[in-house]
Write the structure tokens for this entry.
Amino acid sequence: MKIDWIPLALVPLLALAALPLVGSLPTWVTLTVAGLAMGMMIFLMASGLTLVFGLMDVLNFAHGIFISVGAYGAATVLTRMTKEMQAESLASDLSAMVPAVLAAMALAGVLGWFFERVLIRPVYGDHLKQILITMGGLIVFEQLIHVVWGADIIPLPRPGTITGSFIVGEAAIERYRVAAVVVGVLVFAAMWAVLNRTRIGLLVRAGVENPEMVESLGYRIRRLFVGVFVAGSALAGLGGAMWAMYQEQVTPAMGMQVLVVIFIVVIIGGLGSVGGCFVGAMLVGLMANYTGYLAPKLALGSNILLMVLVLLWRPRGLYPVGRA
Amino acid sequence: MQRELRSPLLDLRGVHTHIGQYHILQGVDFAVQQNQLLMLLGRNGAGKTTCLRTIMGLWKASSGKIFFDAKEITRTATPDLARLGIAYVPENMGIFAGLTVRENLVLAARAGDPDDARLERIFRLFPAMKTFWHSHAGNLSGGQKQMLAVSRAIVEPRKLLLIDEPTKGLAPAIIGAMVEAFRELKRDTTLLVVEQNFHFARSLGDTVAVMDSGRIVHAGAMAALAADEALQRRLLGLSLESHQ
């Protein structure tokens, strides 16, 4: 398979360009690992949205609610398993984290199924109605989180084995960030394998380009839509759980707060491109961390600037997906 | 004579199609007999593409009936029509540019990997498909893309092929290859082909239907239309010589 390496090369180029500005190598290493970790978590949250847009042409502004619900699902499990999480053993931590992540994905996936069936299906093909109804759904379900879990911030302790830092040279690296990078890369590899090595993946890639033709070949694209929507929601739930553990707290609006960054990543990557979303998320994560250190007030603005520059260079994103 | 007694494979009766506020098909009637190639001709905007899309279920008929293999399919969903044995090649070819030639064909073979014998037939008809087997479809030339679109339609056994303007924008040499391929295809498949190139249509069509303003204004044997220049001029606004 032919890969366009130029967008991918932007990641090390951005990192190297930041080195002289940051000045100190240990600080640069810490910031780079933090940026990559943030990028991986954003990728987890954004990958579902890009597939949903690419395949279904749906502008889902309610995507943030799957992140929040995933975070609350994980928090519900983890706050009941504090004993396992304090045991300082990987097996014990995994016995708490695996059910927490599964709960996050299941809850977000079920909510995604409900959204597709009830809110999105009647407005396929109508972007204005999609924006209105998904924004409405986001607000309603955010309020439902208040009803079920309360409006207060829920503190979320991290499992013992991924708490704290280790030192490489003179750079302090947080264990959790390394774990986030590992999870992000594994999820990307799994998505890549599914999309490029399976028949379902072939259908999704074809459907992103030309859903009408996929139907003309005899496939029921609506079933594929539901599957992708549920999978995308579940991934957002996983991202929400990771993001909540990173921030060590859960709030009803956390999904809404990251939505702008997620949309930036999806646009930078190219609507419908999982690979573009992966590269875009790393660029946004690195940019946010470098700018947050060098000029904190420009942190969000820097990502918008990054988006503008990318779109000036490649108007349809880093990895544009051909759409009929 | 035996063929005449059989019911047509495809039969449109009084089909109307609206797209938004526009009334495009205004009572279309025609039939395609088994193992025949019917050429659907007409000026731009006559409703030919709408007709194919309505048969394929991509636009729904607002009234009238469509029968396929003696079964009514007017309200049948597009994927079910494909499963009944109708293949569709749209005007823009509808190939998946980001997929390889192989992946395009694998996707079209719903039962699994493409059958070896059918693949051999495709490679014989269109050798470029074998040459560019692992190339991205988006990198093919216009003619090769059209070959891929037709190959995709025949990678599984089909009863009826709906093909929209297969020669559009193609070089004469490629059109020649298409003529040969269609000649072989019509031996065992029924085809309904929309075409603007009258020379191509005349060389392949068994029967012809001419559309104008959303209606069929002429139907009959292709040979009769090809022999009657006055009729061509009246129906299509052309003389055969100008297309040779």
In short: Chain A has one domain: 5-313. Residues 5-313 of chain A form a domain with the ABC transporter involved in vitamin B12 uptake, BtuC fold (CATH 1.10.3470). Residues 26 and 168 of chain A are 8 Å apart (CA to CA).
